[in-house]
Design goal:
single chain, 120 residues, mainly beta, seven-stranded mixed beta sheet, four-stranded antiparallel beta sheet, 0% helix
Length: 120
């Protein structure tokens, strides 16, 4: 199993920046992709960004390209989400997510989420 713990959320003014962290532990060698999602009240979880572990390729929600950056530090088993030029509509609970493959079995894991509030 994989365990995920997010941190780094908080209150930031519009135009500001935050960096979210997701500490990954457990059977990390099974992970094939790491992602960030977000959710606002009354809405489903929205894809934010994804990074594959094999080739370290990334992809982003079209509306967030250029402002958000996903990265990882293998030495710390941590994945990051750098968020710049934040807008009030970026306010949400942000979740870390991993996809793991063991043989023919695919599993997914969610973190507990971290609140990001963009407000003046």
């Amino acid at each position: 199993q994989v365990q995920l713990v997010e941190s780094g959320g908080g209150l930031v003014q519009p135009g500001g920046s935050l960096r979210l962290s997701c500490a990954v532990s457990g059977f990390t060698s099974s992970i094939t992709a790491m992602s960030w999602y977000r959710q606002t009240p009354g809405k489903g979880r929205e894809f934010v960004a994804r990074l594959t572990t094999s080739g370290a390729s990334t992809n982003y929600a079209d509306s967030l390209k250029g402002r958000f950056t996903i990265s990882r530090d293998n030495t710390k088993n941590t994945v990051y989400l750098q968020m710049n030029s934040l807008k009030p509509e970026d306010t949400a609970v942000y979740y870390c997510h991993t996809t793991e493959k063991i043989g023919f079995v695919t599993n997914t894991t969610w973190g507990q989420g971290t609140q990001v509030t963009v407000s003046s």
